[in-house]
Amino acid sequence: MADLENTVYLDVVDAKDQPKGRITIALRPDLAPNHVARIKELAREGAYDGVVFHRVIEGFMAQGGDVEFGNTTASSFNAGRAGMGGSKKPNLKQEFSKEPHVRGVCSMARSQNPDSANSQFFICFDDAGFLDRQYTVWGKVTDGMDIVDAIKRGEPVSQPDKIAKFQVAADAK
Fold this sequence. Notes:
The chain is mostly beta strands and 173 residues long. The chain has one domain: Cyclophilin-like (Cyclophilin, Beta Barrel). Helices cover 10% and strands 27% of the residues. An eight-stranded antiparallel β-sheet has the order 3-4-6-5-7-2-1-8. A hairpin with a 3-residue loop joins strand 3 and strand 4.
């Protein structure tokens, strides 16, 4: 049985709000306790609901989580700036680990500053070992990789897919 307090569900829809499916992610508080706490905090606030996958690169990763400029339900939504924001919370200090960036791994996006992760994250489509020990791994997809694989590509993405609902499994209704 999965640890529901350390599992999250991402329900993905397309730009017209048509359901694409659910991604289930096992969180790794053993690797990144502060990043996992932030992900759960933002999920419980509903901050990720409506947020687009703004940068999706074939063979690499799908990036989303910009709750400032990437949330289609907020007045601050700006498709041209999606990927440049975070949340109103302070940036996090890195929690790099030996955990490899392989298919299905979820990791925090950041700027050149290693301590600049905030709300943005990415999910690896394939192995990305060149990121190892440079980005904070906080989870891994346990179900729904087919949904991840189907996220609309682009950099930036035209008519991007988005997160309809991001919730901690223990809170799911």
